[in-house]
Amino acid sequence: MAARSVIALVSVADVVAGDLADHLDRRGHDVREARQPWEAESLLSAGGIDVVIVGDSVSQAEGRDLLRRYGGGQSVDGKAGPDFILICRPADLVDKVLALELGAADVVESPLNVRELAARIGGLLTRRGRSAQELIVLENATVDLRSAIVMHRSGAEEQLSPGQVALLRLFLASPRKVLTRDDIIAAAPAENADAFDRSIDSRIVRLRRKLDTETIITIRGAGYRFDPPTQRVD
């Protein structure tokens, strides 16, 4: 199993830090916090950090100092330094430009959306070869298969059970192919001993409901088929 990526939160406001840490932890990341810039010194000096989020309570001078010393591709103990995301106030255009010129990977304005910030972190981890996501986009939701989380367009999230993940992976591996009940029982068995023929129908109904999707189609007398959603072009 790949090592968990490590995200450091430096002086991020408590209300945001709590939500963000929970959001990232459920997606397979380790989160470490430093409430003050001086606490971040020992955390970043030790190395092993993939992404650093610097809160807007840090002075711009302190934030830029951390960025100069540990970011921008600098090396810590022979390893590439972390990517930095700085949180700034909307009026701080000059400081935003300076941060980017110094090598910040991203600058976001407060107030911020935790889910958007997590997506930006995920993008940086992907470029570092440390992605912990396996995303499937459906009509009304996005599924992170590795963390077994369904992210609805409304912002709500639901957890998939191991059996539901196995069932969804089976459909994803066989797009537009009719799978019989026997195929499903063999490749994605139920999570208990009640894997009778009719229980497959119930499992499909529950999965459809949780994913809010019409892509899993019942083929009467034959089984079920997954038709990947057509991507909309705006």
From TrEMBL:
**Could you give a single Gene Ontology term from the biological process aspect?**
regulation of DNA-templated transcription
Q: Which GO terms describe its molecular function?
A: phosphorelay response regulator activity; transcription cis-regulatory region binding
Do you know which CDD domains this protein is assigned to?
A: trans_reg_C
Q: Tell me where in this chain the Response regulatory domain is found.
A: 6-125
Q: Which intervals hold domain OmpR/PhoB-type? A: 133-228
One Pfam match, given by its short name, reads Trans_reg_C
Q: Could you list this entry's UniProt keywords, alphabetically sorted.
A: DNA-binding, Phosphoprotein, Two-component regulatory system
- Give the domain of life: Bacteria
Instruction: Extract the SUPFAM superfamilies matched here.
Output: C-terminal effector domain of the bipartite response regulators, CheY-like
Q: State the DNA-binding region(s).
A: 133-228
Q: Which GO terms describe its cellular component?
A: cytosol; protein-DNA complex
The signal peptide stretch is none
The protein here is known as Response regulator transcription factor
**What is the originating organism of this protein?**
Mesorhizobium neociceri
- Organism ancestry: Bacteria, Pseudomonadati, Pseudomonadota, Alphaproteobacteria, Hyphomicrobiales
